[in-house]
C-alpha cells in the first residue's frame, strides 16, 4: 500500500489565530505596534505588474538591507520564510549524524518536531529548577546543539559568556543559537561568528520588527556555514521569499530608529506588567523577551486561562509536564496590559474569596 | 569535525533573473501579462498594520478562493510557496520507501535534486525518441512516480488516458502529476482524484496566473493524502504563506475571465511562433505549454543562444545529454516574439551565408 511509505509526524501546534477581532490577542508574541512607516510607503509604491516575474533567488535586496543595518557582509547572511523556515533548513543541513542533538527540555517546542520530521536522534536536557541552562550539560558528545537565547517560553536569558562557553566546547558540532527574542533584552551572539565557524545565529522579523505576517527570518554565520545552508535551500525551493517579503522586509530592517523606539516601548510595558503581576501574587522567571511566563502562587492555571478567555483575552498555555502550570502572556500595548491586569485582579480576587 | 555531518547536495540551477530591464526575457516561462486586475486593487487596499500578526496557518482565504473557482472541496486542496515547495513537501511526505521512485530522464530537473536532498532512491526512465512517455515503462515495481504533464522542457503533453493508465497501474505508489503548464493546452487529471486515492495533482500560479513573484502553488488529492502533506508542512513551518500571498493569491484565482483571456493570448502567440520557427528551419516537439523547445536543423544551439544574448534576448539552454542541442523559448508578447523571430532570421541567415 502507498500508505506504508508515508512519513508520519506529529506536527507543531501554533497558537490560535482567531478570526474575531474583538479580542486582546496575547498568545503568539506578536508585536502590538505596526511595522516601520517605510513598509507602508513601499507597499503603496509596489508595482503589481512585476509579480508576473520570479523574485530574485539570491534575495539580494533584503540581504543587502540586513547587511547595511547589521554591518555584516552579505555572504554571512541567510534569509528564510520566518525563522521556522531558517531553523528547518539548518536542521536539514547540519544534523545528519548518528549522534543525538541536544536542546533543553523546556524550550521552543518546534525543535523536537524538526528532529522527528528529519529522523534526527535527539535528547532533551533538563533545565535547572529555576529554568536556567547549565553550560556543563552541553559538554558531552553530541551531533549538534540548539539553544534559544533568551529561551522560550521561559523568557529567561543566558549571559553571552555562557553561550560562548557552549560554542567553544563543541567545535565538532554546529551550535544553533535561536535569538527570536534577543532584541528585547539579551546580548546577541552575532559578534562571535567571526571567532567560531560552528556557530549559527538565527533571528526573526516576526517579533521586534512587527513583521510576523510577512514571514522573514535570518541566520548569520561564517560564509562556509551559510553556503552549506544555501545549497540545501536551493535544493528545496529556488525562490522561497516572494517579492513583498523582499521589498517590505528590506524596509522593515532599514529603520533603526523606529525599531529602537518600538522595542523600548514593549520593554517598558513589560517591566510595568512584571510589577503588577508581582502585586497579584504571580511568580515568573525574569523575562528578557516580549512575553512573561507566569504562574500564580495559589490560583490554578487553567482557571485563569479560561476566565481570561471569557473576557476576550487570549494567552497561551502549554501542557508539557514542566509547563502545564504556567501561562505565557505576550506583551501588548499599555492599554491592553492594563486590561489584562484588571481582569487578572478580578479573577484572582473572586477565586480567593470563593476559597 | 562538524562538517562531516553536513548534508551535501548539488542544488537546482534556476534560470537567470538579470537586473537589467533592457532585455527580452524568455528564459523562465513567465507570463508576459500582469496578474488579474483584482490583485492591483487588493494590493492598494492591503492594511500594513496587519503584518504585525501571524498569517492564518490554514491559508483559508486562499484555499476558499481555490475551492470556489475549481469547484473542489477545501479538504482536497494544499497550498505552498510555489509548486516547488508543494513538490518538495510531497517528496518528503510520500517517498520514504526502499524502492526507487521513477520519473522521465528528460523532465523538470528539480525532481532528481529533491530525491538527492531527501536521500530517496530514484531511476530516470528514458523518454521515447520523440520525447513522449510510454506508460508501460511505469508498470514496474516502484516507490512512487512523478510525471509532468505537459512535460518540461519538452512542452509535449500526454493524453489524460495515458496518465490514468499509469495511476491505475500503481495503487501501491503515490503518483504525482505536475501540471505546471496544463492550462496552456493539456487536460488536467484533477477529475481523477475522486477515483484514485494515490493521485496527487500539482499546479502553480507562476505561469497561467502571472504570479511567479508571489510564490503560490497548489496540490489536489483525496483528503487523506492532503492531510498527510499538511502534517509534514506543519512539522516544517507553521506559516509558509505570508499575508500578501494569501490575499493577492485569492484575487489571482478568482478572476476566471481574465485568466482565460490571458491564456488564450499566450496560446495564440505560441501557435504563431511555431509557424515562424518552422519556416526558419527549426524542429520541435508540439508544445502545449507557454514555451517551445526547439532545435535548428543546421545551426548550432550555442551559437544561436549567444547571438540572441548579444541582441538582448535571453532564452534557456540545458546541458544534459538529451537537451544540449535544444533551446527553450518562453512565449512572450506578440511584439517580443516578433523581435525574437526577426533576430533568429538574421542569425540563421548570416550563419548559412558564412557556411
Secondary-structure blueprint:
The structure is a homodimer of 355-residue chains.
Chain A lengths: L23 E2 L11 H9 L14 H11 L6 E4 L1 H13 L6 E4 L6 H7 L4 E4 L19 E4 L11 H9 L6 E4 L20 E6 L12 E4 L2 H12 L8 H12 L1 H24 L2 E3 L6 E6 L4 H10 L2 E2 L1 E2 L9 E4 L3 H21 L1
Parallel strand pairs in A: 1-11, 3-4, 5-6, 6-7
Antiparallel strand pairs in A: 2-8, 7-8, 9-10, 10-13, 12-13
Outline the structure in words.
Two copies of one chain form a homodimer. With 355 residues, chain A is an alpha/beta fold. Chain A folds into two domains: 15-33 and 257-350, Aspartate Aminotransferase, domain 1 (Alpha-Beta Complex), CATH 3.90.1150; 52-254, 3-Layer(aba) Sandwich (Aspartate Aminotransferase, domain 2). Chain A contains ten helices and 13 strands. Chain A has helices at 37-45, 60-70, 82-94, 111-117, 160-168, 223-234, 243-254, 256-279, 301-310, 334-354, and strands at 24-25, 77-80, 101-104, 122-125, 145-148, 175-178, 199-204, 217-220, 282-284, 291-296, 313-314, 316-317, 327-330. In chain A, the strands form four sheets. In chain A, strands 2-8-7-6-5 form a five-stranded mixed β-sheet, with helices on both faces. The model of chain A has no long low-confidence stretch (mean pLDDT 96). The interface between A and B is large, with 86 and 86 residues.
